[in-house]
Specification:
By secondary structure, the chain is of the alpha+beta class. Helix content is 23%, strand content 29%. It contains two helices and six strands, in the order E-E-E-H-E-H-E-E. Strand 2 and strand 3 form a beta hairpin.
Length: 128
């Protein structure tokens, strides 16, 4: 199977040696998104609500660039520096996704790049 690199200026550019997303067959692997503004590449300085919305907005743009949408995501991995924010992230996630929801894992971590409070990576399927 061939690999296709997904890239868009509507989501933050990679800040290291990785691609924004990679498609292999019908699957698209989206790199972890932190709450960076894609225009300024600066962290959204705000509370967990604003940071989480920015992350899901970035994911949505990468899904579009891949030829899909958030509805095509089959797996999410959520990383939080404070698991006390878990309920807030759940609530915001419910605004972006409809049932049936994607599979998901949520993990508490000591720190994230640029001192973000949340990071989310995704796998989407473009199969019909």
């Amino acid at each position: 199977m061939s690999r296709r690199i997904i890239q868009t200026d509507q989501a933050p550019a990679a800040i290291g040696p990785y691609s924004q997303a990679v498609q292999v067959g019908d699957l698209v692997f989206i790199s972890g998104q932190i709450p960076l503004d894609p225009l300024t590449m600066e962290l959204v300085e705000a509370d967990i609500d604003v940071q989480t919305r920015r992350v899901f907005d970035n994911l949505a743009q990468l899904c579009l660039a891949s030829g899909g949408s958030l509805a095509d995501i089959c797996k999410l991995s959520i990383f939080l520096t404070d698991l006390g924010h878990f309920a807030t992230v759940n609530s915001i996630m419910a605004e972006y996704f409809d049932a049936p929801y994607p599979a998901r894992a949520a993990m508490g971590v000591a720190a994230l790049p640029k001192d973000a409070m949340v990071e989310v990576e995704a796998i989407l399927s473009l199969a019909d």
